[in-house]
């Protein structure tokens, strides 16, 4: 397994948010974390990214990751697209993208990757000199994902990338996530839009109140009548 999480616990002060989660992600998989508001999805991905102290163990290719070592994790190949996107609106589109390359030392390859990103997302090329705050919500999500890709991650953590987007743009984002697999990326996708998510994911974990209540192949979860009724809002 590329990423292995064992007995993950996270608390905010005295309040426990994640109570012993186990999860695994194999190379090249798209794994979804689904569950209601407050289930602990964001807390889990932040802990994996190194942004929160945690108990238990998280290993990447067998190497333990230290809690709170976000920059080290980024260099090890874990990139996070945070909930709310984390775009710096008063900087230009290009400045936001360049931030994605700051941890790299291969400047020439990074410049080539930036050019490649503009080919892939022509809207970002058109707007490269404009302020990021002037992009639409969907374009900002595209920018956030492109910025994360520019760190050349092996594991991409995406926290609610479709949140607040118009349906057409949300579909575009789901297609984009599905296409990342072809780039050889491994993805942990946190989403509220469970049905859509289960269509593009290989496997999924359903969280409730900081625990995994069920996990398995995404298609099996989507087809399970009890899960469908209880967690996915029926058919
Ligand atoms: P959402 O979809 O709303 O982001 P989630 O599944 O990602 O939900 P978390 O944001 O991880 O859930 O929250 C898990 C629990 O931790 C919730 O009970 C939440 O109230 C609590 N929590 C989250 N962030 C904080 C914080 N900064 N301080 C205190 N409690 C927090």
From TrEMBL:
This is Amino acid/amide ABC transporter ATP-binding protein 2 (HAAT family). SUPFAM superfamilies: P-loop containing nucleoside triphosphate hydrolases. InterPro entries: AAA+_ATPase, ABC_transporter-like_ATP-bd, ABC_transporter-like_CS, BCAA_Transport_ATP-bd_LivF, P-loop_NTPase. GO terms for biological process: L-amino acid transport. Belongs to the ABC transporter superfamily. Signal peptide: none annotated. Keywords: Amino-acid transport, ATP-binding, Nucleotide-binding, Transport. The lineage of its organism: Bacteria, Pseudomonadati, Pseudomonadota, Alphaproteobacteria, Hyphomicrobiales. Pfam families: ABC_tran. GO terms for molecular function: ATP binding; ATP hydrolysis activity; branched-chain amino acid transmembrane transporter activity. Gene3D superfamilies: P-loop containing nucleotide triphosphate hydrolases. Coiled coil: none annotated. Residues 3-234 form the ABC transporter domain. PANTHER family: HIGH-AFFINITY BRANCHED-CHAIN AMINO ACID TRANSPORT ATP-BINDING PROTEIN LIVF. The keyword Amino-acid biosynthesis does not apply. It comes from Aquabacter spiritensis.
